[in-house]
Amino acid sequence: MILVTTLIRHFERPKSNLTLEDLITYPQGTLGNQLGKFLFNNSYEQDPIPEKEDIYRLLITKEVSNTEEVAMYCYLFGNGDKSPQTVFSIVTGTLLYPHYIQYFYKRYKDGKRAFRFYDLDCFKMLHLPVNKIKDAFLIQ
């Protein structure tokens, strides 16, 4: 277990300096405001500092479950994210949830169809409306 924790920490993606309160002050309907509400509604009190994965989750799924987490990483893999964290999450998730393989594959194909966005600095888009971001990148 220590090895897994060490590996995850090594490949952790950068966090933002924004707080939950900062996010909620963004205008209604923007990525920043929606992210703040998402974090608040899903009880992210232990680690209220947003990460890129939180933005991806908001744009791709809005659900908080193990299978949706794996589906999100499948989507990102289809979108071009070949990071060790993404691959590890997909392999582990597929082994743990083999009956969801068709769904994971569908999300992978959805990610392939979307314009590449996984490597953008999402924190620079917090002021933009969520629906415009989804439309611009064909995020389903």
Description of the structure:
- By secondary structure, the protein is an all-alpha fold.
- The chain has one domain.
- It contains 8 helices and no strands.
- The chain has helices at 2-10, 20-24, 31-41, 52-60, 66-78, 84-96, 101-113, 130-137.
- Helix 5 packs parallel to helix 7.
- The protein is globular.
- Mean pLDDT is 86; it is low at 1-7.
Keywords:
single chain; 140 residues; mainly alpha
| Amount of helix | 55-70%
The general outline is: globular
User: pLDDT average, as an integer?
Assistant: 86
In N-to-C order, the SSE pattern is HHHHHHHH
Number of helices: 8
Computed structural class: mainly alpha
The biggest sheet amounts to: none
Strand content: under 5%
Short description:
The chain has 140 residues and is an all-alpha fold.
Summarize the topology.
Blueprint: H1 2-10, H2 20-24, H3 31-41, H4 52-60, H5 66-78, H6 84-96, H7 101-113, H8 130-137
